[in-house]
């Protein structure tokens, strides 16, 4: 009887420990990503998000100098779909004279998304404070400046950088790595003045909140 009691207690303890183990957050499906963007409305309360199909996406002509900095503008200015991306969802906002694109690409797994984000961070580390020329529309030439925030507990990795041209035009990009997705926010601001990333950061924080909410539905 004593041995049986010990065995039963061991089984119960094992079940308790199993239930206490953290459940991995589910990766995003395309409908999940569409659900995320359903909540990303403009200031007027409307939303025109659409699915990005890599088979019906056309690249823009152009190139970046130096070549090592090209990954930083592939998904935005050059409209190139990341090599390992499956599909994505995006939206567009026009704010006064500025244009803002927000889109997320979905990858097969977290490791694939992490590889894409790591590729961008390597390019950024090599190009920060370097004179970069964007030979595409919108074109620009100037010093690349920015910051990166590495992944921490409950905080997704983010990367932000901007190219300020001679006439003050800003080509600004903000990147967010979350689960099996990588998201880009591209701002074209044809007005002079110092660029501040606060608005872009708030949009990405809101996007991350939407992603957490959709993940919580599957837990």
Helix tally equals 5
Strand order of the largest sheet: 1-3-4-9-8-7-6-5-2
What order do the SSEs take from the amino end to the carboxyl end, as H and E? Answer: HHEEHEEHEEEEEH
Share of residues in strands: 25-35%
Structural class: alpha+beta
Reported CATH architecture: 3-Layer(aba) Sandwich
Cα(first) to Cα(last) distance is 39 Å
**How confident is the prediction overall: mean pLDDT?**
85
What percent of residues adopt helix (DSSP H or I)? 25-40%
Q: Determine and state the CATH class.
A: Alpha Beta
- The backbone outline, from C-alpha atoms, is globular
Please indicate the count of domains. Answer: 1
Parts with pLDDT < 50 across at least 5 consecutive residues? 13-22
Strand element count: 9
What profile does the largest beta sheet have? 9 strands, antiparallel
- CATH fold name: Protein Transport Mog1p, Chain A
Explain this structure to me?
By secondary structure, the chain is of the alpha+beta class. It has one domain (27-216): PknH-like extracellular domain (Protein Transport Mog1p, Chain A, 3-Layer(aba) Sandwich). The protein has five helices and nine strands, in the order ααββαββαβββββα. A nine-stranded antiparallel beta sheet has the order 1-3-4-9-8-7-6-5-2, sandwiched between helices. The longest helix has 19 residues, at 2-20. The two termini are 39 Å apart.
Record keyword descriptors for this entry.
Protein Transport Mog1p, Chain A, alpha+beta, 5 helices, 219 residues
């Amino acid at each position: 009887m004593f041995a049986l009691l010990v065995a039963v207690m061991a089984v119960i303890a094992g079940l308790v420990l199993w239930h206490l183990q953290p459940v991995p957050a589910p990766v995003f499906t395309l409908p999940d990503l569409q659900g995320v963007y359903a909540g990303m409305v403009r200031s007027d309360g409307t939303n025109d998000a659409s699915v990005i199909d890599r088979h019906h996406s056309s690249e823009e002509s152009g190139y970046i100098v130096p070549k090592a900095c090209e990954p930083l503008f592939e998904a935005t200015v050059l409209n190139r779909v990341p090599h390992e991306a499956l599909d994505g969802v995006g939206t567009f906002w026009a704010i006064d004279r500025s244009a803002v694109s927000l889109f997320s690409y979905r990858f097969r797994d977290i490791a694939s998304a992490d590889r894409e984000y790591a590729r961008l961070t390597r390019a950024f580390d090599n190009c920060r404070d370097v004179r970069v020329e964007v030979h595409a529309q919108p074109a620009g030439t100037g010093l690349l400046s920015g910051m990166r925030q590495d992944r921490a507990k409950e905080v997704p990795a983010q990367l932000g950088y901007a190219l300020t041209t001679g006439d003050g035009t800003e080509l600004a990009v903000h990147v967010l790595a979350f689960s099996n997705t990588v998201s880009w926010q591209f701002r074209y601001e044809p007005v002079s003045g110092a660029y501040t990333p606060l608005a872009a950061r708030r949009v990405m924080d809101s996007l991350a909140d939407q992603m957490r909410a959709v993940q919580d539905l599957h837990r």
